[in-house]
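hi! just following up on the protien thing from before. the input was this:
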Amino acid sequence: MSGIGGHQSAVSKTDEWLTPKYIIDQLGPFDLDPCAPEERPWRTADRHYTFQDNGLLKEWDGYVWMNPPYGQQTEAWLNRISMHGNGIALVFARTETRMFFESVWGRAEAIFFIKGRLYFYNTKGERASANSGAPSCLIAYGSYAREKLKHCEIKGQYIEL
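and the predicted 3d structure came back as:
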């Protein structure tokens, strides 16, 4: 498993890119982040599982924040949060993919398409010099998460499923 988000930059040679803090602040507080990096300049939840913990195998409870490793592993993480049924996941808005059809459409309660492309942060809290390179969305699993997305002040478009 890669670090949070699993976004890799050829320039920085890292795959640990953190969600902008304003997103966590808007949608939290969260009880658990099962995809947290070892080092983080801000808390994303009350409890964190890191790569060493393998959050896919741990018990989840409460309201979950998840910026999963991107790539082939993303689907397993989305399936897990879907089964948990109480949380928000941040992923690229690849709405046409098999992963989206199998793990989001028909399972999630809402999607929030973020306006523009996000700038992620490194583990020291410094913003990346380039944006993420693709559009991102927030996916709500469960009614509590749906309501948090519905009433957030993040710029973008909310769609209830």
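Helices lie at 21-27, 74-84, 98-103, 143-150.
The chain has one domain: 5-160.
cheers
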